[in-house]
Every structure is written in structure tokens, then in C-alpha cells.
Amino acid sequence: MEYLQKGGPLMWLILFCSVLVVGVFLERLTYFHRASIRVGEFLRGLANLIQRRNFAEALHECAGTPGPVARVIHAAIIHHDKARTDLKEIVQEAGQLEVPKLERNLALLSTVTFVTPLIGLLGTVTGLIESFVTISSHSGFASSMDISSGLYHSLLTTAAGLAVAIPSSVAYSYLSARVNTLIHDMERGGIEVVNLLTAVQIPADDGAQIIEFQRQKNERAR
What we know:
Blueprint: H1 2-7, H2 9-35, H3 39-51, H4 55-63, H5 68-78, H6 84-102, H7 106-137, H8 144-200, H9 204-221
């Protein structure tokens, strides 16, 4: 409280920014923790269901699993009878809808990281101006104590701005890395579920007939 009072009104603005950063970081951290799943294990479980063409249970499994990866896979399984090209488009569109949810409030965090040092610098400049006004009011004969006190108060805002900006930058980098990880998981899940659904679209007997027809066609060509 003593630093806040000595630093002036801009210190309260920097304090508000720090509270905002903590709130955004904790909210995003909680969201990412709930959204993260073990993609490999989840896909192995779905592969068994899809290979048995048990799409209803696969959809139920996706619906009961939180996170963007499960929602992207769910969108593909709903349209399991579509062609491979259509399935790729469905997965891509579902993933694009999930990206804004992952990046929510990250722009705010980036803005605070950029703005708080500038607020601190503004406080320093205004403090220096007040110090020079004090010197001018004393006809240039202000004591060293008056000058040092003014400088001390003016530098508090710069220190506070940097103290908020540095952790905010680290938090933004960490959350951005988590976003990239989840996007990679969505891409992996989308690619693998498209491959699984494409593989089960042709029944085994039909597949054997197609292979035999292709073999006979090659023999006639020879």
C-alpha cells in the first residue's frame, strides 16, 4: 500500500493489470487442463469400436470426453459414411471452430504484457516532470533530498510495470505453447479418425472382390 500511494494513480492501474493477468492465466490453465487428453489411448479405444462399426458407442465415447480433440473426432464419426475428401473438410472445419476457443483472452494477456511497461514509463516521466516543477518553484535551489525523493517516487511505476510485464510474457508464452500442443493433437486425431473411417467403409468381401477384379484386369492387360 505504501508503494501504491507513493507511485501515484498509475500504480493502481498497474495493479489492476496484474490482477487481470492472474485471472486470465488461471482461467486458461484450468481450461487447458480439462481439455487435454491422452490422444493415443483415446484413439486406440475408438479404433476398436470403429473397426467393429459400432459408431453409436464411439459417438457416446466422444460425447463423454471433454476437449477439442474429442469434438473434432465426434464431428467426423457423425458423418462416417462420407467420402474421404468430405471427411477431411469436416475435420478441418471442426478444428477451425475450436481454435478461437483455445486462443480466448490470450490477446488480452499479450496486450497487458506490452502496455504495462509503457504505463510504468509514463508514471516515471510524470514523476520527473513534477520533480522539475518542484525545482523550478524553488528557483533552482531544491535540496538533494527533494530531488532524490521525486526520482524515487517516479521510478516506482517503472519497476511495477516491469514486475507485471515479465511474468505476463512468460505466462503468454506458456499458454501459447499449450494452444499449439492442442492444435497438434486435433490434427493428429482428425487424420487418424479419417483413416479409420475410410478403412471400414468398404466391407471385407467387397474389398476382396475389388482386389481380385484388379488382379484379373492386370492379367488380361499382359
